Amino acid sequence: MLGLLISKIRAYRARRRLNRLVQKGLRIGHNTHLQDGVFIDPAHCFLISIGDHCALAPNVRLIAHDASPNRFLRLTRLAPITIEARCFIGDSAVIMPGVRIGPDAIIGAGSVVTRDVPPNSVAAGNPARVLCSLEAFLAKHREKAAAGRTFGYGEYDIGVITPERKQQMTAYLKAGGAGYMGARSSF
After folding, report:
1. What is the pTM for the complete model shown?
2. Which residues are registered as beta bridge partners of 122?
3. Which of 31, 107, 122, 137 is the most exposed, having the fewest neighbouring CB atoms within 10 Å of its CB?
4. How far apart are CA 107 and CA 16, in angstroms?
């Protein structure tokens, strides 16, 4: 009960923070999901645009300024960040000023994006670089999923999984099997 209350309070605070950023000029598209801990540059949020149907995983950082020259030049670089429609930004990725991420792009977890990412591509690393096309990435995962096992969301989600299913999933994955979780919905 207490956990649910804390969760609701955090969600309320996150919505309030996001609403304040939108009032200051942040542009955020329809059906876009920001998970816990997403940081959007509060002083320069008006330089940031996030398209429709995007997902930003936990702890993503969108930074529209670079203060590194400030100590020496008394200047801070400012540049817009544009994340176009249907992008996925992985956990703890950092998007730096002046970056445009094209539609249908995926950014890998922990990446530092310092350059534009073209549409329909997958980029990762520090600094992030394009690894493959979106179609090649999806084909690889389709093949692995077909050869492996998909665990149903309704049976294996953390809210409903039984101890027996946890043990079953863990044993399968530790044995080296390719495992995927069915999604409750897409974005």
Report:
1. 0.89
2. 106, 132
3. 31
4. 27
| Catalytic residue, candidates 44, 53, 65, 141 | 65
Q: Which of the four CATH numbers 2.60.40.1930, 2.160.10.10, 3.90.320.10, 3.40.50.300 does domain 2-132 have?
A: 2.160.10.10
Bond before 97 cis per omega within 30 degrees: no
Q: What is residue 140's predicted lDDT score, i.e. its pLDDT?
A: 96
Instruction: Say whether 28 sits in a helix, a strand or coil.
Output: strand
Domain with CATH 2.160.10.10 in the chain: 2-132
Cβ atoms of 82 and 64 within 8 Å: the answer is no
> Which amino acid is residue 103, in one-letter code?
P
For 93-108, what is each residue's pLDDT tens digit? 999 999 999 999 999 9
Query: Is the pLDDT at 185 greater than 80, yes or no?
Result: no
* Whether 65 is catalytic: yes
Three-class secondary structure of residue 43 per DSSP: helix
**For residue range 120-176, what is the model confidence (pLDDT) as tens digits?**
999 999 999 999 999 999 999 999 999 999 998 888 888 899 999 999 999 999 999
